[in-house]
Amino acid sequence: MRGPQPRHPLPADAAGASPTQEGSSCRARRKAVAVRILEAIRKKLPDVLSRPDLEMVALDYFRRLGHDNHRRLSKVYAWEEKKSKASWGAQIVDYEKIAAAAAVEAMKPADLNRFLVVCALVSDLYCPGYDPKQSLAKDSNLARTALRYKIDTAKLVASIRAELPSQTKSCKARTPRQKAETQNLQK
Predict the structure, then answer these.
(1) What is the Cα–Cα distance from 174 to 25, expressed in whole angstroms?
(2) Measured distance CA(34)–CA(20) in Å, rounded
(3) What percent of the chain has pLDDT over 70?
(4) pTM of the model
(5) What region does 23 belong to: left with phi over 0, alpha with psi -120 to 50, or beta?
(6) Got the DSSP string for 143-183?
(7) What's the chain's Rg over C-alpha atoms?
(8) Distance, CA of 104 to CA of 115 (rounded, Å)
(9) Which of 3, 17, 44, 146 lies in disulfide reach of 21, CB 3.0 to 4.6 Å?
(10) Cα 144 to the chain's mean position, in Å?
(11) What is the pLDDT of residues 126-160, one digit of tens each?
């Protein structure tokens, strides 16, 4: 019994050679075919993306964000992070599966548009451990988007400071080892 065959985006006969064959001429033909297919698709793209295209773009963008941003998005959207056993025995969270199954497929087109914007902004949630007091850069996507939507960030900062004063005082009293242990627990 044969195992599952690898799926290649271009058939071997369309590219002029099998995907496993080596050689620069084979790669050049394969690339030329892929470029022509892309050009043909680009010419046929409508003004408004169809649902499958929008899902493809959202999931592809999500895949490119990286693990830390997957975790941040999962928290922003309150997705349940179900752990499963990996082939090597570790417990992992398949964020791509969560995003594809639970979220993106269930979103309405307007929600997909919002999801793409949130994907573009989520990396600005990173707070460097070496300088936790570092403020959000004014030229960051998050700050520029807040300005564009007329969000009063000064008011938000004041409300956060009012909500979290006890945590900042207790953070200063802890030893470096206690801080490290807390950070490890949060990961």
Answers:
(1) 63
(2) 16
(3) 73
(4) 0.64
(5) left
(6) HHHHHHTT--HHHHHHHHHHHSHHHHHHHHHS-HHHHHHHH
(7) 23
(8) 8
(9) 17
(10) 20
(11) 876 677 677 788 888 999 999 999 999 889 988 88
